[in-house]
Design goal:
- This protein is of the alpha/beta class and about 325 residues long.
- The chain has a domain of about 210 residues: NAD(P)-binding Rossmann-like Domain (Rossmann fold).
- It contains twelve helices and ten strands.
- β5, α5 and β6 form a beta-alpha-beta unit.
- The longest helix has 20 residues.
- The protein is globular and about 55 Å long.
């Protein structure tokens, strides 16, 4: 019988693709949902998945969730669309939830836990050089989300040092994009939806290191399977790509604006628009990261960003999350 794997936060964007990847590889998969009300929606999209109720904010349910599991993939973590009023709204749940999962895993003999962290735990305060897994964000310079990811990952490594019987591997993804599995679009694909919807007259001058959620799912499986991955963190992010460049790719198929909005306009709009406020924080920043370790140790690779963007757009339209903007206008040669 195949090994049983627990994936936390089964209703999430990353978790859904991780579950699909594991099922396709013959694993038995159990997923957690915060409430039974979500179970039917998740089960409809991911047939073959066993579901249990467990909330990261409570100890209830976690013993049953990890029972019989050889592996745990902890993907559940909040990703806000706006800065919270107080950082503890993100930091405490991220840290406490991660430790809650690790304690349950260690107590029930789980062989390995893979934690989904972020490049937010790598890049803050480390500008000016190619970033690797040796880099850690400076929490004094972090916003609430960046701090939550950094401290949660630090707590995970501290726990692993005290409980060597349960192996730990960590994935640090860049900006996660890719096709949605249901009629829900989280923050990470919100920018693509905005471009398709024409909600803004152009695109901001932002730069990201992206990763396709399908490739990220493979990275989680490999970090779970490859013996040498124990005790390692892995950056999973592609080369830097600008938001205007993304718009140009989408414009090859769809009728969308590729006009680059000036920074001063984004900062002006940010005074009263939460989406623009989030974008303004990243103006002028670069994204210089290396995924060489994941490629070398795990044999991991990424598909072209154009494929990811066009597949993402098609899925948003398919699920009615944005109206089809129409085919691209024929451009003069």
């Amino acid at each position: 019988m195949s090994d049983l794997v627990l994936v936390t936060g089964a209703s999430g964007f990353v978790a859904g693709h991780v579950i699909q990847e594991l099922l396709s590889q013959g694993y038995r998969v159990r997923g957690t949902v915060r409430s039974a009300a979500r179970a039917a929606d998740v089960a409809a999209v991911l047939p073959g998945l066993e579901l249990v109720e467990a909330d990261l904010g409570s100890d209830a349910g976690w013993a049953d969730a990890v029972a019989g599991c050889r592996y745990v993939l902890h993907t559940a973590s909040p990703f806000p669309s706006a800065e919270p009023e107080h950082e503890d709204e993100l930091v405490r749940p991220a840290v406490d939830g991660t430790l809650r999962v690790l304690r349950a895993a260690a107590a029930h003999g789980v062989a390995r836990v893979v934690v989904t962290s972020s490049i937010a735990a790598v890049e803050v305060g480390n500008e000016g050089h190619l970033l690797t897994e040796a880099d850690w964000s400076d929490t004094a310079q972090c916003d609430a989300y960046q701090k939550s990811k950094t401290l949660a990952e630090r707590a995970a490594w501290d726990f692993a040092a005290e409980h060597p019987e349960t192996e730990l591997a960590v994935i640090n993804p860049g900006m996660i994009i890719g096709p949605v599995l249901r009629a829900e679009a989280g923050t990470s694909v919100g920018g693509i939806r905005t471009v398709l919807a024409g909600d803004m007259p152009g695109v901001p001058r932002l730069n990201f290191a992206t990763v396709d959620v399908r490739d990220l799912a493979v990275a989680h499986r490999l970090a779970m399977e490859v013996p040498e991955a124990a005790g390692s963190r892995y950056i999973c992010a592609g080369p830097e790509v600008s938001f205007p460049a993304m718009a140009e790719i989408l414009a090859q198929r769809y009728r969308v604006s590729t006009r680059v909005l000036p920074d001063w306009l984004i900062r002006l709009v940010a005074r009263f628009n939460p989406d623009a406020r989030l974008a303004a924080r990243f103006l002028g920043r670069g994204a210089n990261l290396s995924a060489a370790k994941a490629e070398r140790d795990l044999g991991w690779h990424q598909r072209p960003v154009a494929e990811t963007l066009l597949d993402t757009a098609a899925s948003l339209i398919e699920f009615g999350l944005v109206a089809d903007p129409g085919a691209a206008r024929t451009r003069a040669a």
